[in-house]
Amino acid sequence: MKALLGPVGSALALLLAGSLVAAGAMDARGTLFPTARLETGRLLVARPGMLDPNFAGTVVLLFSYGEAGAAGVIVNRSTRTTLSHALPQVEALAERPEVLFRGGPVAVDRLIFTFRATALPEGCLPVLADVCASGSLEVVSAALDGERPTIEFKGFAGHAGWAPGQLEWEIEQDRWYVVPGDSRWIFDSSPDDLWPELIRLAESPLA
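^ thats the sequence. predicted structure below, dont judge the formating
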């Protein structure tokens, strides 16, 4: 298993280089909140009618959205493989219980990490106020060196990516709900319960 370095459909490579420009705001149909707009940090919740098996029943955290397209990771498809097993060369992961997630169908041999902390690790790209993303093993090692005992993190094999205009088209086809991001959904919710809970909220008469 390789860390996410080099080409990744250009999405994360551009992202980490700070090259993506925030796109103009647009209202998405069927959003959980009327003001929810596509931007970095949003959660995409697959509607029950999603036919693509890559995304049926998924919740995707967008770590990149702009003129170059969109990219994110599926946050509710966990595996039984621990990160320490997938990355035995990273001593900081030894004996830790965190498991690997299936982040998406693109670049499945490369890893992306998300972190939650009040003080985010250096070299990590901000996604939410308390969440960032990185494809660097150096960032992982530095974040877990004992100086940040309260940091939380997740590792994802692969990611999801959309060409310019593709995600907007999918939303117009009623394939996704767009939900304001919150680290509690990503780190505190059970992966198995997250999608049903967000669907229940999105389709509630109060939504």
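DSSP finds six helices and eleven strands in the chain.
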